Amino acid sequence: MTPVELSRTVLHAVRCAVDAGDLAVDLHGLSDLQRRVSVAPPGPGGHGDYATNVALQLARPAGQPPLRVAEVLRPHLAHAPGIRDVQITGPGFLNIRLDRGTGSGLVQRVLAEGLRYGYSDLLAGRVFALRVPYDVRAEVLADSLSRIVASQGGRVEVQHEESATSSPPSRSLFVTHGTLVLRPLPAPEDPALLGPDAARWALLHPAPHDRPRISADHLVQRESNPLFRVRYAHARTRAVHRNAADLGFAPPSTAAADADAGLDTSGPAQTPLLRLLADHPRLLSSVVPADATRPDPGTPSRLARHLVTLADAVIPFLPTVLPRGAEKPSAAHRARLALADAAGAVLAGGLSLLGIDAPDHL
Where on the phi/psi map is residue 112: left (φ > 0), alpha (ψ -120 to 50), or beta? Predict the structure, then answer.
């Protein structure tokens, strides 16, 4: 279950509580509530896999203290499919622990969808106008933004202008006549010498309003280079898959088999990986916020940082996948292999949306 799916589950629990007469809230504002309700990993003092602030958002409309609203919503949410337990913490946060098999279902979904995991028809039929100057960074950012919008079913029409002299120098983007004008801070020098992949990363990794750094550091094959870590993590997942095949085992072919393998969402290595995989669709769908009419140019930068965080979670996990010494391949090894394959697919898919290659060998 992804945060997007869990958010829908939370809103369904609200609707059930209202229909049952347990909560007096006008459901006509439910779409607005969806934009304000957060579903994220719990903060300090929290428990479980995710926490939501829905009770705090509903307290004023319901005329009840947040804790009382949380108590009303808790049984409706606790009985939802895929949820194992719900606890209340702080002023009224609902802390959600997912079923043991939920991680298995997520992994199987990623493996089934492959590089298109996180794609949706959320923006189907929508066309966005984007105007950029003839500048290499603006061109690359517009291309990546177009790719991400397309992954959600939308389309970006890019228009060009001769110069950026008419825009306020302190602003990298603004709106005029309904068109998003994108003028990120240009690169201090030509990034072409870095090669296409490193050049794109150098231009996309910083936020549009930050000055990109063009240097040979983007080419070094060591941990200090974020692009190397992302591509290395992907290449290692493919190497682990090849090595597993040499040992005669593969990921489980069904969700049930994966669940039997014990892919526990509470495992110290699996938990951050599963959370990052689950968060990938939300990140892509946020390219056009629910309360906005234009794509967010900061999305490629957030996607790049998300891939770095995922890579940093994948790399220490991979040594646990293959059997060691005389150990025989088990169901647990197959489940870990499935998780590694899923992480590799998300890394490759994310890089493709940035226009960057994800080689199997590095």
Answer: alpha
Q: What angle do CA 79, 339, 318 make, to 5 degrees?
A: 135
Assign 316 to helix, strand or coil.
helix
Tokens linked to 282: 């939300």
The per-residue pLDDT for range 150-203, each reduced to its tens digit, is: 999 999 999 988 654 444 444 555 555 567 899 999 999 999 999 999 999 999
Are β-strands 39-40 and 83-89 bridged in parallel, bridged antiparallel, or unpaired?
unpaired
**Maximum alpha-carbon separation in the chain:** 69
Q: Could you give phi then psi for residue 276, rounded to 5 degrees? A: -70, -40
Q: Give helix 226-247 / helix 331-353 axis angle, nearest 10°.
A: 140
Q: Which residues contact 8 (CB under 8 A, 6 or more apart)?
A: none
The pTM for the full model equals 0.75
Whether residue 247 contacts residue 326, with contact meaning beta carbons closer than 8 Å, is answered with no
Taking the C-alpha atoms of residue 26 and residue 22, their distance in angstroms, rounded to an integer, is 13
The per-residue pLDDT for range 278-315, each reduced to its tens digit, is 889 989 988 987 667 889 999 999 999 999 999 999 99
CA angle 286, 80, 9 (to 5 degrees): 20
Check the CA dihedral 271-274-277-283 and report its sign: negative
Residues contacting residue 182 through CB under 8 Å, at least 6 positions apart: 130, 131, 132, 138, 141, 142, 145, 172, 173, 208, 297
- Read off the amino acid at residue 137: R
